[in-house]
Amino acid sequence: MKKIPVGPLRAFDVAARTLNLSAAAEEMSVTHAAVSRQVKQLEQRLGVQLFERLPRGLKLTAHGALLAEGTRQAFDRLASAIEDVSTPAVRRKLTISTFASLSARWLMPRVQSFAERFPDIDLQVVTSTRLVDFSREDVDIAIRFGSGNYPGLHVVPLFQPREIIVCAPSVLKNRKLETPADLKHFPLLHDDSYQGWERWLTAAGIKGVNVRRGVICGDRNSMLQAALAGQGVAITSAVFAADELDAGRLVRVFTNEVSAEFAIYAVCLPRRLDDELIAGTIAWLQCEATDSADAHRPAP
Asked: Structural domains in the chain?
């Protein structure tokens, strides 16, 4: 079997399709002479004439027609293979549903960690205040704040938030906040109710501080934004405020803390645990939760 370079075969294939050396040269971005030379080289290597040269173009000989059929199939298959190799494989998507504050303050800062653990997976995070209906919605895993009683679902505890008191350094610039009793002299920030402050002050044994004042911000994320802007003193989860505390944008005022009334759970349909990605993601969430739950604990 004669070994023939690809170049002459390609020149012949284009010339056979266009039946015109000038058109073939334009398609290949080479000169008319270059195409003519490569076709002649091929004819010499094969020992047969492939084209009849006509005044206005080319005509395939019987040998040329037979070879043209083969080269067309070969180059088509090659083009298809190149496309398959160069086209990225369809990536799988994993959808996690959670509430907005946890997404912004805990989950999104860990997206890079997820990407390193699952490099071939695209993560989609959707936020909602309602419980996901797994039978109707395209959600793989949900992260919930609640009692952990979710019938029909596989439930994995992640962490029990610890409520701490924080504020921007600017809030303390002109006034001292040395004891919890001093809170009565400062504006208080709330998420969607007064309950957080009530529970914290009760646990600290503090009376005489009217918690039913200040701004109700709607959710933890908005409340922390208000705290960062120096609008008052906030009660929040240590996990949610971790980045701001690390950066010094917020300061922890007291060592007193109280466990939140509810906890954070990851839930999914039990049958989905057979999926390695689902099981692996839940395990990843547990690892991240364990690491973050120990952040900013007061020294013993």
From this structure: 6-86 (1.10.10.10), 92-160+262-293 (3.40.190.10), 162-259 (3.40.190.10)
